[in-house]
Inverse folding.
C-alpha cells in the first residue's frame, strides 16, 4: 500500500493496524467516497478488505494480496 492509501486510512480516522480490527471494509469504502465526494475505484475496497483481514491476525499469504479480495 502506498502513500495515497495511507492518507485514506488517516482521513478515515485509522492511525494503527489495531484500529482496523473488526471494521467493515464496505462501510469504510462508502465513507471514503462520501468524504472525497466522488466515486473511488473498487480496488480500494479490496485493499480495505485485505487490511481488515490482516488486522484480525489473518496470515494466509494468498489473502495478504489485495487483488485476491475481489468478488468474482
Amino acid at each position: 500500500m502506498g502513500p495515497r492509501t495511507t492518507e485514506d486510512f488517516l482521513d478515515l480516522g485509522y492511525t494503527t493496524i489495531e484500529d482496523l480490527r473488526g471494521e467493515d471494509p464496505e462501510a469504510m469504502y462508502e465513507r471514503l467516497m462520501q468524504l472525497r465526494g466522488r466515486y473511488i475505484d473498487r480496488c480500494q475496497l479490496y485493499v480495505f478488505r485485505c487490511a481488515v483481514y490482516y488486522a484480525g491476525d489473518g496470515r494466509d499469504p494468498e489473502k495478504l494480496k489485495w487483488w485476491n479480495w475481489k468478488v468474482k
